Write the structure tokens for this entry.
Amino acid sequence: MVNPRPMVRRLFPATRDTRDADDDTTGIVRHHWDRRAPTFDDQAGHGLVSDEQRRAWLDLLSRLSGGPLQQVLDIGCGTGFLALRFAELGHTVTGIDLSPQMIERATRKAEQAGIELDFRVGDASALDCGDESYDIVAARHVVWNLPNPERGVAEWLRVLRPGGRLILIEGRWADDEFPATKGHRARFKERLKDAIVKISVRSGIGSQRFLRRRYRRMESELPFAGGPSAERLVELLARLSVSNIRVEPLMNPALWGEPPPYPRYLVWGTRSG
């Protein structure tokens, strides 16, 4: 559904953002994604590359969201890929991301498409939303980036209405069964290291020892770095009393614009009353 008179609202919650800026890990993560925002959509699997891909996602999300129009929250929305697809289906959508640069790009895409969306800068683990506000909470490739996944997902369930649906789209690109390529691992490490370097320079701290220490700390603070396995994610949701948990592979190349180079999957369930 396209609205010919778009309204895209941007909220910058100062209280939570100020507190987040004091957290080293959150600051590094924010800077990393701000830096990647200008070229984020250029990579297959991130941006929309064809009508076939668009139709594949609309079919998937239509099946997951059901018939009636829903209030949808897209956590870690990035440049708005999921949020835009949900809005195309007619749902009322809010997108939240830690990166202001990602939100700016998502905002421009919605305006250009003439789609009404509510985009906000915010912390996935400390949402500026009321309890039981949404029928659907969705996150695409976000859980792995949380310093405390259990706390983050619990926060998502807080804003989900009883009986509402939690939709998590994830992948596992680094484990023993499906090892990532050396090049992919190297690029992943270099991106994090580059973010640490730039933040260190700004704060006047540039020693190699400091950078190595901060980098190791960053890796250790991401429990799902490399992507969670479906089994671990199911265990996490079960601990949080999510019901009717289901797992589906998402290996259709049409969804990603290329054959998936590593396992991608969907885990979804409902919030218990």
About this structure: Strands lie at 8-11, 71-75, 92-97, 117-121, 134-140, 160-171, 242-249, 264-271. DSSP finds ten helices and eight strands in the chain. The first strand starts at residue 8 and ends at 11.
